[in-house]
């Protein structure tokens, strides 16, 4: 059983190729964690009911949608068992919107996994409000499987001064399970400074201060995971750009839902959203523990 968050690995299934890539990723992760894999297909059949349709017609369409979803789950289970035949798998067709179903599933999950595009119920994921809602409101970490999926490489994590503990805990745990290093990226930019002061600033002193911020944030996790090799990286750049660049050869890039400079009330910050759209590898979005 995963001791970090408890529960199983849940993956959303809709029959698309992207969803099956997510199933493969989730199956490997469930095996690595030693937990069950749960396959869920969300079918909001009420929304497909034609206005004025006869009750028998509505029931026929509902059954057709459910049968299609069950077939998607059967295919997904075959893909997962191709990764590990002994993997314990639950599967269920659920009625409801994708965002609602996945958020509810996250309450009892160690990890929620989705593809970056889909069809049917998950077609909006990451590209619109559904993906943002799931990543922002899920009660467990969310992994969106996009870009290149590689078996070896570092776990990249974004670090700021105030909201990184949950993301760091997740990143170090993933790295320890994989025997991978952690690349901890702390980005800063003069765009946040008073432009009239910029010509007079001591850039070496600022760099030293930013390095100290990163080391302080890393210290408890380095102590807790001494077996994990850590590569602290301070970058004078936009945070989203720095993380996308650092993740080019990564197995996973991890971000919190809010960081320094976040607008109050925004549950999913601009950095997380940029990674969900542009990262070259799977993306994990981890909410702060206190907000779950």
TrEMBL record:
Q: Which superkingdom heads the taxonomic lineage of this protein's source?
A: Bacteria
Under the heading Pfam families, the entry gives:
Usp
Cite the InterPro entries for this sequence: Rossmann-like_a/b/a_fold, Universal_stress_UspA, UspA
Residues in domain UspA? 8-146, 154-287
To which protein family does this belong? Belongs to the universal stress protein A family.
Enumerate the PANTHER family for this protein. Answer: ADENINE NUCLEOTIDE ALPHA HYDROLASES-LIKE SUPERFAMILY PROTEIN (PTHR31964), USPA DOMAIN-CONTAINING PROTEIN (PTHR31964:SF113)
This chain belongs to the protein called Universal stress protein
